[in-house]
Design brief:
Elements: E1 6-11, H1 17-29, E2 33-38, H2 48-55, H3 66-71, H4 74-79, E3 83-89, H5 91-99, H6 105-112, E4 117-121, H7 125-129, H8 131-142, E5 146-147, E6 151-154, E7 160-164, H9 168-179, E8 188-193, E9 198-199, E10 205-206, H10 213-224, E11 228-233, E12 245-248, H11 252-262, E13 267-270, E14 277-279, E15 300-302, H12 306-311, E16 320-327, H13 331-342, E17 346-351, E18 363-364, E19 366-370, E20 373-376, E21 380-381, H14 382-397
Parallel strand pairs: 1-2, 1-3, 3-4, 4-5, 8-11, 8-13, 11-12, 13-16, 16-17
Antiparallel strand pairs: 6-7, 9-10, 14-15, 17-19, 18-21, 19-20
Helix pairs in contact: 1-2, 1-9, 5-8, 10-14
Length: 398
């Protein structure tokens, strides 16, 4: 699936650099050519000779290498690949990228490239958790830089926590998600996912039990088929799918705004569990007990139906609008009526009664309602449901 592709691999200076050697080997096994670039500190961990031998290519190291400039300038080098991968990406490299520095070959290539960039961060847990690194990460995300990992576990420095570079097979999956020549290449698909949370006052909110697992799996499956995915997600602890543009939101109103901003799209999948109601007048101060023993009266107002609003659009309506229906009985009838009411093309319906173990679980059992009626799918993993749905979307948009 990576046959004929080329990755520009920037190896940063961290103990995880040794894993980059395996990454090169595995990329080449899949038919992907690798142009290696070493930072000065990376050379403290791996030698240019071993990198060059595994890549079967010249290693680029120096911005001011005149021979290199006459053979291939740094601008050309930065654009000669389909994807730029930074592995390991150190805290320092992240800071340089976020700040737009260009003081060595690696950082200059990252500034000059017009190709997607995927980073695999690797650093000590405290460095990863440092507000500066988290700030840089959020800046990089806004700049559409993709990230895989870091993983959690025991680190070379003896500490435990997030900071270990992702394993080469996981980095390869991320590369494949970005580079795949799937049937959805060139298509833009919007996915909503997760719960929404509706504030009562600055410290309290109303939420629901959606984990965001099904929505994330759908976004991942669509991206793996080559779609450009905008993933509008409420708060969720599920890792963000690789190769998608994530737009984090909290409330239904914010989700609606993000969805409107993401249009036009070829298809839209509304997997979010949106709160039907929000607090009419949220308090700007924490609501205090008033001593009377009486609970406060909270007034609700209805949230806009995001699915229905998009499905009823005259302009910019996606060609395929897919809604979900979480029911606890009479699933087909309720979901069929919901499809009519919300004017969407398909409804993915499921029974979320507690005894099914579906809400918050790993499996799902869905009924797909289309113009042709109800189609019952067997119980399967949420990732398999996602792949089947994404494949069906690809067939329909073809
Ligand atoms: N949905 C939405 N915006 C809302 C509410 C729901 O976009 N404000 C979407 C969900 O993402 C899902 C579908 O509508 O795709 C079904 O939502 P659900 O909550 O099951 O349906 P309701 O309209 O709330 O119907 P009911 O309360 O009768 O189950």
């Amino acid at each position: 699936m990576l046959e004929g592709k080329r990755v520009l691999l920037i190896i940063g200076g961290g103990i995880a650099a040794f894993k980059s050697l395996e990454l090169i080997r595995r990329l080449r096994e899949r038919g992907c050519a690798v142009t290696p670039v070493l930072t000065a500190s990376a050379e403290e961990f791996v030698t240019p000779l071993s990198v060059s031998a595994l890549a079967a290519e010249k290693v680029h190291r120096d911005l001011f290498d005149l021979t290199e400039e006459s053979e291939m300038g740094h601008i050309e080098l930065s654009r000669s690949a389909d994807l730029v991968v930074v592995a390991p990406c150190t805290a320092n490299l992240m800071a340089k990228m976020a700040g737009g520095h260009a003081d060595d070959l690696a950082s200059t290539l990252l500034m000059a490239t017009d190709k997607p960039v995927l980073i695999a961060p690797a650093m000590n847990v405290r460095m990863w958790q440092h507000p500066a690194t988290q700030r840089n990460l959020s800046t990089l995300r806004q700049d559409s830089v993709l990230a895989v990992g870091p993983d959690e576990g025991e680190m070379a420095c003896g500490e435990f926590g997030p900071g270990r570079m992702s394993e080469p097979p996981d980095i390869i999956s991320a590369v494949a998600a970005v580079l795949s020549d799937g049937p959805l290449n060139g298509r833009h698909i919007l996915v909503t996912s997760g719960p929404t949370i509706e504030p009562i006052d600055p410290v309290r909110y109303i939420a629901n039990r959606s984990s965001g697992a099904q929505g994330a799996a759908i976004a991942q499956a669509l991206a793996s088929l080559g779609a450009r995915v905008t993933f509008v997600t409420g708060p969720s602890s599920i890792p963000t799918p690789i190769g998608v543009k994530a737009v984090p939101v909290e409330s239904a109103m914010q989700m609606l705004e993000a969805v409107e901003a993401a249009l036009p799209a070829d298809a839209a999948v509304f997997a979010a569990a949106v709160a039907d109601w929000r607090v009419a007048r949220k308090s700007t101060q924490k609501i205090k007990k008033d001593g009377s023993g009486k609970p406060p009266a909270i007034e609700f107002t209805e949230n806009p139906d995001i699915l229905s609003a998009v499905a009823r659009k005259r302009e910019d309506r996606p060609a395929l609008v897919v809604g979900f229906a979480a029911e606890t009985g009479d699933v087909v009838n309720h979901a069929t009526a919901k499809r009519e009411r919300k004017a969407c093309d398909w409804i993915v319906a499921n029974d979320v009664s507690p005894e099914t173990g579906i809400m918050g679980g790993a499996e799902n059992e869905v009924i797909l309602i289309t113009d042709d009626g109800a189609e019952k799918w067997p119980r399967m993993d949420k990732t398999q449901v996602a792949v089947r749905l994404a494949t069906r979307i690809a067939e329909t948009l073809a």
